[in-house]
Amino acid sequence: MERGQQKAKMDVKLFGYYPEAHCLTCQSFQTCGGQSHLEDEDNVKKYLLDKYGDSIQVSLVNVFSEDVMGFPEVTASIKKNGLMLPIVMIEGRIVLFGHKATNEAICEAIDSAMAGA
What we know:
By secondary structure, this protein is α+β, with helices and mostly antiparallel strands. It has helices at about 40-50, 70-80, 105-115, and strands at about 10-15, 55-60, 85-90, 95.
C-alpha cells in the first residue's frame, strides 16, 4: 500500500429483522418476528465497532425488505436453511447464521478474515 492510502474497511453485514432498516410496513415491531433482532443495532453493531473501530464497517439489512434481494447468497441461505437469523456476511461471504452467530463467533470470523487479508 502506498503512503497516504487508507486500507479499505472490512465489510460486515448483519441480516435480520430490522424494521427501521427500510421496511415501512412493519415499523411497529408487531409482525414478522416482533423485536427479535432489535438489539443488534445497540448491542452487536456497537460491540463490533467498539472492538474494531475504523477497520470495519457494519451494516444491518432487513431480510423482509427489498434490499435483501441484492444478496442472492442470503436469499439462497434462507431457502435452504430456513429463517435462521441473524445471518452474518463478511466481505460478501456468509460466515455464520442463527444461534451460532454469537458476538464471540463473529469476532473470530472477523479476526480470521483480517488475518487472511
